[in-house]
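Onboarding guide, step 5: your first structure request.
Type a short instruction followed by the sequence, for example:

Predict the 3D structure of this protein.
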Amino acid sequence: MTDEPHPHEEPPMMPRWVPGVIGIVLVAMAALAVYTGVRYRTPTVANGVVKSQRPARATTGAAGAPGEPEPGASLMFPGDADNAPAAHDAVTGRARAEITGTGNVISSTVRIWARRGMMTNVVPDDAMVSVNDLVIGQAKQFDKADENYDFPAPGSYTIHISAPGYKDQQFIVTVADDAKQEIARLDVKLAK
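The system replies with structure tokens like these:
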């Protein structure tokens, strides 16, 4: 005897409800894809009904190639050993500000002490921040308590804040274990 299938036997059928469930799942996935596609674009299709979660940001120049950072963005990562600024000898003395210059050209440098890092509150928020002549990014990258800049080692750091069309400002932050503040807060409104 051979084990040949009987010609009248049919393979087992799928329950009738399975194709319906598959169809419902596919329709739900398609609807979700359309919804998320519309939600994260400028709401033109929805005629303003769908609100963007992020406010529109002003850019300072033309858009770059796809995949490139927007103008003014930094590709440097604070704290990375290759990009970390070197600390200078700690600034001593009691003076909190130093004013230099003659005639119409006068500049001031404010000195601040901290134990660990700095936080910025700068207007305009797209101003560039450099530490010891190393650009670390835009001021808005360091404007929240959980996104502050941590200095790599104790010592003094010259902080330079600049934006096109504004006068630059400079600070010296001295990082020391005996400083009263954990984080130095730089509140700056650049003058035109």
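Each response can be followed by summary notes, for example: Confidence is low (pLDDT under 50) at residues 50-63, 74-80.
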